[in-house]
Amino acid sequence: MLEGVKESKGEKIFNIVNIILLAVITFVMLYPLIFVVFASVSDPKLVYEHPLLTHPLGFTLDNYKDVYANKDIWLGYRNTIFYAVLYTVVSIALTIMAAYPLSKSDFYGRRFFTIFIVFTMFFSGGLIPSYLVNKKLGLVNSIWALILPGAISTYNVIITRTYFQTRIPKELEEAAEIDGCGILQTLFKIVLPLSTPIIAVMVLFNVVGQWNSYFTAMIYLDDRSKFPLQLFLREILIKNDVSKLMDGAVKMDRGAFESMMKRDGIKYAVVVVSSIPILILYPLLSKFFKEGIMVGSIKG
Amino acid sequence: MMWNLRKKDSSHEHWSDVKKSIIKNRALYFMFLPVIVYYILFCYWPMYGIVIAFKDFDPSVGIFASKWVGFAHFTRFFKSYYFVRLLKNTIGISVYSLIVGLPFPILLALMFNEIKKKYFRTTLQAISYAPNFLSTVIVVGILMFFVSPDGGIFNTIRAMLGKDTVNYLTEPKYFWHLYVWTGIWQAVGWNSVIYSAAMSGIDESQYEAAVIDGANKFQRIWNVTIPGILPTMVIVFIMSLGGVMSIGYEKIYLMQNDLNLQTSEVISTYVYKSGLLGAEYSFSTAVGLFNNIINFIVLILANKFSKKVGETSLW
């Protein structure tokens, strides 16, 4: 930060304490995930008896084998990947198609169109009217209910528009025009290649958003074969647990106990299996975050 | 500025100029057309659908032909025995989240800011916002691992300390705390990034001037860093206030059960249950509209307030 300023003894101690505190905080934040990873490779009975895990107990890969054999998980995984890719393509295409015209100062009607879309950020129809509209459009129990209604985020459009306005030099676009490029050519050859940071960030958030969402799928999809991963996760992690909670301290026979342990083991493994892709993806794209956020906060 | 429709662009003085510009830019209009269709279909049509809050909506005859009932649904909602409870839970959980959620990301960003080695700092920060990328289902699932009365970590610790078991998820008094603090766990790392970005935008020379004036580290933080990120704090605060009435109902819905409804039922979950599960379309739309309007008013008030107190505002 500051070059050549000699640190006082007090400041040196401060720095050490700071790092220790941060390490402790980061560890505490991470412990739930560490616990789940350890538990997923442990014997569920041992985890049940000694939950305060500092390392895996009774190392076993059986939990993962059970997950591997679970057809629902595979189905959910396949569906979610498909929805995430489809949604990202549709959303980014539409967002760019909205932001690019709005970023051109000679686009007649620009102010009107901007207000037209920004108004929707402050006021919306709400859950029920949206559901009724989607029903009229035939989207109930259709995959497209997960893709179309939420396809454009006005917030993203504004950020992308600002990016186009501030990061793409006008001289480049004008030069392209002189060289005989039409609007589409300018967009694809010049503007988009220069927009990789903002597109990368949007891709990440679109994929993560689709990957993690459950509510829209829950209210629109009846067909189990179309369920995304999160709906199956909800069944495994939450709905079962709720009935367990409600029954209180149940006196179980050995068979019920065994199957409950097996279910617990699957739960830990399933959490790991469904979170790994995102947890691997986000660090790779994290270097684009700061830039994306800076652009967003300039115009806000 | 945005609202000034009357002001003409200098390049569009005459209608002939406008025609020329539209023809030249026709690709832009074709590009924008699907966008307009999208907003009309999925934003403005549902907005029109709000009118059923004032009618007795009958799906078989459609919106236009349904009977008008005025404010009957609103009256029913306000007079209901659960109205106060819903309002209390909705506002209470929101305010609790807001107040607790404000200082921690800032503190974390300040701590990160003091780490000199860039590689170390960005790595630690990236680890701290990992929970942000977990799904709501997973977060609630992990919560259940910890609070379960049967083999959960919290109750195991309680047993070790000689205390008896607590069923955290079925006792109403714990709901707010569980909701808010899992939210902090998930968001604090990510929210600190916004402040980190703001901090990196503070001019170095301000720190140097402070050092020359004899300021120690804490004084530098208080007098340079904090004022430097004050605009960001205000914007973040306003935007959080904007979500006050529509708090993460997805997570609340997963954490709800029949035994904790007294503290866990909020307006948005009630709208879902009465509207989609109970098929009371008009009534739940009225409740949802009430929600939106309160939201909107809070947003406007917050913006006015911040204009008076600081110099920043959303608009």
Largest sheet of chain B: 2 strands, antiparallel
Shape of chain A: globular
Helix content of chain B: 55-70%
Q: What pattern of helices and strands is seen along the backbone of chain A?
A: HHHHHHHHHHHHHHH
| Order of strands, widest sheet of chain B | 1-2
Which blocks of ≥5 consecutive residues of chain B have pLDDT under 50? Answer: none
* Quaternary organization: heterodimer
| Helix/strand order of chain B, N-terminal first | HHEHEHHHHHHHHHHHHH
Provide a descriptive summary of the structure in words.
The complex is a heterodimer of chains A (300) and B (315). With 300 residues, chain A is mainly α. Chain A is built from 15 helices and no strands. Chain A has helices at 9-40, 44-49, 62-69, 71-103, 110-122, 127-136, 144-147, 154-167, 170-178, 183-191, 196-212, 215-220, 229-247, 254-285, 289-299. Chain A starts with 8 loop residues before the first helix and ends with a helix. The mean pLDDT of chain A is 86. With 315 residues, chain B is mainly alpha-helical. In chain B, 70% of the residues lie in helices and 1% in strands. Chain B has helices at 15-24, 26-49, 62-65, 72-79, 83-101, 103-113, 118-128, 136-147, 153-160, 175-200, 204-212, 217-242, 249-255, 261-264, 267-277, 281-309, and strands spanning 55-56, 67-68. A two-stranded antiparallel sheet of chain B has the order 1-2. The radius of gyration of chain B is 25 Å and the shape is flat. Chain B starts with 14 loop residues before the first helix and ends in a 6-residue tail after the last helix. The relative contact order of chain B is 0.11. The interface between A and B is large, with 104 and 109 residues.
